From TrEMBL:
GO terms for biological process: oligosaccharide metabolic process; protein N-linked glycosylation. Belongs to the glycosyl hydrolase 63 family. Residues 28-397 form the Mannosylglycerate hydrolase MGH1-like glycoside hydrolase domain. Pfam families: MGH1-like_GH. Transmembrane segments: none annotated. Keywords: Glycosidase, Hydrolase. The keyword Hydrolase applies. This is Trehalase. It comes from the Bacteria. InterPro entries: 6-hairpin_glycosidase_sf (IPR008928), 6hp_glycosidase-like_sf (IPR012341), Glycoside_hydrolase_63 (IPR004888), MGH1-like_GH (IPR054491). GO terms for molecular function: Glc3Man9GlcNAc2 oligosaccharide glucosidase activity.
Length: 412
């Protein structure tokens, strides 16, 4: 286990730029929003000051409207190293879209590892502004849920849940993909899907990053993480001697809206909702399992029954499959259309602990650590064989391995 921790620490050291950590030196050579939150959670065990710096760097790029951009570009990286880069977004040193709000949980974890009230006090108003942006400007459906306006905002870029809403988008042309220079085409989104991503991003950019476009979706994973983040913000407020009830009340409202809007009792699953049509998307994806993070989730037993059944076989495969194992479109190697991702496994393990599933949580934690070590800290893996896919020496895989190894109940 010490070797695994040292190897993981080596990955994080190798991907450190001096003020932040890249997910991968090759495929993702800048700072990504939710990656940095997961990275900080692991770094707190190795170098708390570096974990604080990771989050401070990210929030130094926060927009005036409160949004935390999904990429902060490294000025020392050549513009041609990644597309779409800063020239495409025309937003200074950042992109113009967001990623899931896992940051409050990361800030709290970093503070708990090495208490620093100045750090907490500086980031609290930034976190509050971030959540207010999501709960206000992004409540496109008027139901108290934050909507995403681009598949990349979900963090689960080419999830089958987006196929329906994306079908209305005409793919862009005339761009050069940089990701295929560093990743196997069979593991990455298709050219057609990538063209739709570029079209949506360009349209949103040209709107001045305001309002919504052709893709407007309420994602269960994104909103579960937002509710959990409000609970973390309540703990941060308490640590600062500030009122915490408003954050707990907000978390409860989001959780209630999530269950009333996105839960399908007949299926035993949370589905994304296409705000433009008002319909739930029919695909079972790992996003629907993330509401387990909410401790008072009344439908948790039914959700767990589906997760441990044939669609996801939780506890009998490697990690948490990103898509229904029984679906005709399940692909064990293509990005978010089947493979298991380490951060989702880590989040689901947290949810299992909230609902008393300690044996299953321990089993999942053991598998995550073993798979990470065996695959060279792969970006994601085949849930059926455990084979690594995507880039290797991936930062959040390494960081969350460190965190799991620090948890006494995580691994035998």
């Amino acid at each position: 286990m010490n070797v695994t921790r040292e190897q993981a620490a080596g990955v994080l050291a190798g991907n450190w730029l001096g003020t932040s950590t890249v997910p991968s030196r090759s495929l993702y050579p800048h700072q990504w929003s939710w990656d940095s939150a997961f990275i900080a959670i692991g770094l707190r065990h190795l170098a708390p000051a570096r974990a604080r710096r990771e989050l401070q760097t990210l929030f130094s790029a926060q927009w005036r409207d409160g949004r935390v951009p999904h990429i902060v570009f490294d000025p020392g990286t050549p513009p041609e190293a990644y597309f779409p880069g800063p020239g495409f977004w025309r937003a200074g040193r950042t992109s113009g879209i967001v990623q899931p709000p896992v940051h409050a949980r990361a800030v709290l974890a970093v503070h708990q590892a090495e208490p620093d009230h100045a750090f907490l006090a500086a980031l609290y108003p930034k976190l509050r502004a971030w959540h207010e942006y999501l709960l206000g400007a992004r409540d496109a459906g008027g139901r108290g849920l934050a909507a995403i306006v681009h598949p990349w905002e979900s963090g689960m870029d080419n999830s089958p849940a987006w196929d329906g809403p994306l079908s209305r988008v005409t793919p862009a042309a005339g761009f050069v993909r940089r990701d295929l220079e560093h990743g196997c085409a069979a593991d990455r989104p298709s050219d057609e899907d990538y063209g739709r991503y570029v079209r949506l991003a360009a349209d949103y950019r040209d709107s001045g990053y305001a309002g919504t476009g052709g893709f407007v979706v309420e994602d269960p994973g994104f909103n579960a993480l937002l509710a959990d983040a409000e609970l973390a913000l309540a703990e941060i407020a308490e640590a600062l001697g500030l009122p915490s009830d408003p954050h707990r009340e907000t978390a409860a409202r989001v959780a209630k809206a999530l269950q009333e809007t996105l839960w399908d009792s007949a299926s035993g699953w949370f589905f994304a909702r296409d705000v433009r049509t008002g319909s739930l998307t029919p695909q079972y994806t790992c996003s629907g399992l993330l509401p387990l993070l909410l401790p008072d989730l009344a439908v948790a037993p039914a959700l767990l029954a589906t997760a441990t059944g044939p669609r996801f076989r939780l506890g009998r495969v490697h990690g948490v499959p990103s898509h229904d194992l029984t679906a005709p479109g399940f692909d064990p190697g293509r990005y978010w259309r089947g493979p298991s991702w380490f951060n989702v496994g880590w989040l689901v393990r947290q949810g299992l602990l909230h609902h008393g599933e300690h044996a299953l949580a321990a089993q999942l934690g053991e598998d995550l650590v073993e798979t990470a070590a065996r695959t060279g800290f792969a970006e994601y893996c085949d849930p059926l064989t455990g084979q690594g896919h995507g880039t290797r020496e991936f930062s959040w895989t390494a960081a969350l391995t460190v965190d799991l190894l620090a948890q006494p109940a995580a691994v035998a």
